[in-house]
Design a protein that fits this description.
By secondary structure, the chain is an alpha+beta fold. It contains 5 helices and 12 strands. It is elongated.
Length: 262
């Protein structure tokens, strides 16, 4: 008796599995549940993006910094444009106004992306987007999770220097202070309470808009107080000089009166 074994499909190759993943990956759309974020996530993302953009302008870097901007791309072997919208992205392309970032036009997917993780986006950010960004050639992928009643967390994945675009991303190891060093940006990424900041190698903390305004106001107040103190000192000095001159003239008068005495 001949036993017929059930027919089985051969296992997918990695290239086939990657293609199937990208074909079934859902787009980032405005009504997607993982796109909803609260104040913690919104202000973290927008403040961090602003600080990077300001720093890039100040240093004259060729950075384009985007926030929550749709990135459109066509994955090899697929037939239509897909859309992912990271909370923060940095691309080394000329800065211009975008309503979306078209990889076909710009030439490459942004090498640095950051997602600010919210309760509704955990699986999306930590699993699906990690795989998607890996396949799309991202070199540094940071994930920041701001929390109200617990310490905020920062983790990430990256390709090592010298790795090609097809190499897998590895865990991005923090330094002894819990910071992530971004070789792409030349900055340390570090957690401050419920906010994510970048710090230059020489120790300068990149400030967010509200912090910049507060620092400027404090500096202006300190300058005003210093100017007022200098004005008081100069006035006291003039008054002292006037008093010295008055006493000198009075002494001369006494001396002249003494000389005229019999």
């Amino acid at each position: 008796m001949v036993t017929t074994l059930p027919w089985r499909k051969p296992p997918l190759t990695k290239a086939q599995a990657d293609l199937l993943f990208m074909l079934t990956l859902e787009d980032d759309t405005e009504d997607a549940p993982w796109m909803v974020m609260g104040d913690l996530q919104f202000w973290s993302a927008s403040g961090f993006a602003h600080s990077l953009r300001t720093y890039g302008h100040e240093m004259g870097f060729g950075w384009y910094v985007g926030g929550m901007l749709p990135i459109q791309f066509i994955y090899p072997g697929t037939y239509r444009k897909r859309t992912l919208a990271p909370d923060v992205m940095v691309a080394f392309t000329p800065e211009k106004r975008h309503t979306s970032y078209d990889v076909t036009v710009e030439g490459a997917f942004p090498p640095f992306v950051l997602e600010v993780v919210s309760p509704s986006s955990v699986a999306r950010d930590e699993e699906e987007k990690l795989e998607a960004y890996t396949l799309l050639g991202v070199r540094e992928y940071a994930l920041f999770t701001p929390k109200e009643n617990a310490p905020s967390t920062l983790m990430g994945y990256r390709r090592e220097e010298g790795d090609d675009k097809d190499a897998p991303m590895r865990a991005w190891e923090p330094d002894a202070d819990g910071r992530l060093w971004s070789a792409l940006l030349g900055l340390h990424l570090e957690v401050h309470g419920q906010a994510l900041h970048a710090r230059t190698p020489d120790g300068r903390l990149l400030l967010m808009p509200e912090q910049e305004r507060l620092a400027r106001a404090r500096a202006e107040l300190a300058q005003q107080r210093a100017e007022e103190a200098l004005a008081r000192a100069e006035a006291e000095q003039r008054q002292s000089a006037d008093e010295v001159e008055r006493l000198r003239r009075e002494l001369e008068r006494y001396q002249q009166e003494g000389d005229r005495s019999p």
